[in-house]
Write a structure and sequence with these properties.
heterodimer; A: mainly alpha; Ferritin; two-stranded antiparallel ribbon; B: 176 residues; alpha/beta; four-stranded mixed beta sheet; three-stranded mixed beta sheet; 5 helices; 7 strands; elongated
Chain lengths: 260, 176
């Protein structure tokens, strides 16, 4: 059993949402100085910064709910891989620009619907965090949409790369919308029935309807998948997660207590 | 958390002190757009006084990840301390979520003078049943012949534009 399995249900839920944002923020940051144009460096840095801000408020709150005195830094830097509860989609390596845009499209479509409903959460803090984040995410989704349209409905080469980006990302899409997978259930059902958490299954239809509409306009096809990722919400991760955490955490762990 | 706040009308001298504390906090400049104060931006949400004399300043972030909040918090505490309010605290609130609708008319004017196209007012972007994209006016030459280069700019709250008339790039404070 991982340490996160013993967290109170609300803290586990909040950690999952916070980890999604934290890990994707890290991936966005990796594009800085490597994006296809300067404006894109700036855009992905800003998107990452929004996600990092969401991660900070979510992890801070998770620490408060847990009540063991852990703050945002303790949770971000001092947990091991098996205690991270993000979906595997966000830890997937950036790949080429098309892979990253395919992921951002699906993830921001998901997050848009999530925050839209979490805004009405019975939990006041989660509702406030969602209300704050929802307008930011609308910008992220627009940004990914523009690129997917431009690349999908562009030249033959860009179309092919964009389709291949979608193919890479697609096995990870299902996990976003799965409540009960092979390794367990997330969020805990009574957290959904109490109105604190949002059932991810509820988000599948509206989020994927949006994605479908973008793919149609971009002349791209929904990929067929032979397998789907599962287990992220229970702390089971893919190979790139260890490398990502090493980069994210090593300074904090090498120099405990250091500050700027 | 419920704290006991002193009612303004209880004691006129306390009310005057509170007004002075509010003016000090309101004058703190945004570290990234120094022509604007946190009051112009709508980031300053309240200044109150607890029973033990602690001044409590409440601020709200523009964006979740706005890195200026730490600097603003420190600047507010310094301004209060310099003004003689040694015991002060800055609280961060997320709800209600900040919107550019809270930016003052004075703030919008100062932004434009500084070279940043201000966000649309609530009346402009909520008018009518159909969502309209209004032309963006170049803060340099005033032309409406402008184009967006990127939805994301030098800070989280801005997008990058270019004027086709005077060929100058400029920032726009995004409506949120």
């Amino acid at each position: 059993m991982t340490a996160c399995a013993t967290l109170p249900a609300l803290a586990r839920y909040t950690v999952g949402l916070g980890d999604d944002a934290l890990v994707l923020a890290q991936r966005c940051g990796e594009w800085i100085t490597r994006a296809p144009q300067l404006e894109e460096d700036v855009a992905l840095a800003n998107i990452g910064l929004d996600l990092l801000g969401q991660a900070r408020t979510l992890l801070t709150y998770a620490g408060q709910v847990e009540g063991a005195g852990r703050d945002e830094d303790d949770l971000a830097y001092l947990r091991d891989e098996r205690d991270f509860l993000n979906v595997q989609l966000v830890e997937l390596e950036n790949g080429d620009f098309a892979v990253s845009m395919a992921r951002l499209l699906v993830f921001s479509a998901y997050q848009r619907e999530l925050y839209d409903r979490l805004h009405g959460s019975a939990d006041e803090t989660l509702a406030a965090i969602a209300a704050k984040a929802i307008k930011e995410v609308a910008y992220h989704r627009d940004h990914a949409t523009e690129w997917v349209l431009r690349l999908g409905d562009g030249t033959e080469a860009s179309h092919e790369r964009m389709q291949s980006g979608l193919d890479t990302v697609w096995p990870y899409v299902d996990e976003l919308f799965t409540t009960t997978g092979r390794h367990g259930t997330w969020p805990q059902p009574d957290l959904v029935s109490s109105g604190d958490a949002v059932d991810p299954e509820q988000l599948r239809e509206p989020a994927m309807a949006y994605v479908q509409q973008v793919l149609d306009e971009a002349t791209l096809a929904v990929p067929a998948v032979s397998w789907t990722a599962t287990g992220g919400r229970q702390g089971i991760h893919s190979l790139p997660m260890g490398h990502l955490l090493a980069e994210l955490q090593h300074i904090h762990r090498s120099h405990p207590g250091a500050s700027w | 958390m419920v704290s006991v706040m002193t009612r303004l009308d209880d004691d006129p001298s306390l009310a005057a002190e509170l007004t002075r504390a509010r003016a000090l906090a309101a004058a703190v400049a945004d570290p990234e757009i120094p022509v604007l104060t946190i009051d112009d931006l709508g980031v300053l949400r309240g200044v109150e006084r607890e029973e033990d004399g602690t001044v409590v300043v409440t601020i709200t972030p523009t964006y979740s990840g706005c890195p200026a909040m730490d600097a603003i918090r420190a600047d507010v505490l310094t301004a209060l301390k310099d003004g003689g309010f040694g015991t002060a605290r800055v609280d961060l609130v997320l709800s209600p979520a900040w919107t550019t609708d809270w930016m003052s008319a004075d703030g919008r004017r100062k932004l434009a003078e500084y070279g940043i196209a201000p966000p649309a007012t609530a009346a402009e972007h909520r008018q009518g049943p159909v969502a309209l994209t209004l032309g963006m006016r170049c803060p340099q030459c005033g032309s409406l012949d402008t184009e967006q280069l990127s939805r994301f700019g030098s800070t989280a709250c801005k997008s990058l534009w270019r004027c086709r008339a005077c060929a100058e790039p400029f920032d726009h404070f995004k409506s949120l």
